[in-house]
Design a protein that fits this description.
With 136 residues, this protein is mainly α. It has a domain at 9-85. The chain has one helix at residues 7-115.
Length: 136
Amino acid sequence: MTDKHGPAEDNLLQLIASREKELEAKVAQAKSDARRVVDDAQRQTDAVRERVRREVADLETAAQAAVAQEAQTLASRRLTAAETEAQRVRARASERMREAVTLVVRRVLEGLEEQTPAREPVGKPARAGSDEGHAP
């Protein structure tokens, strides 16, 4: 082989070099396009994550509100039931109070009658100095 290159070989080398530069430009463009696609995908991913975070926060808020509403409803029902029961107990107590007072008064009076000595019937009071009402 000789050190001399012919015009055909020079043209071939120039063609190869030109083709290599075109391929390098295409590779650079493909890398740039890929970088842009990755960046766009990252932005879209970030946007989706942020939207999902907001949706989750909204769902949590809605769930907390629903739980609070349900708790309020249950508390209200229990309070109503307790007030109804208290009213029923007061009514029963009022009814029984009359019975209890009557029973206590009767027992007190019976106890007083048992403790008080029997008295003789009261008639006219005897006059002083008179034998009336006294045994001879």
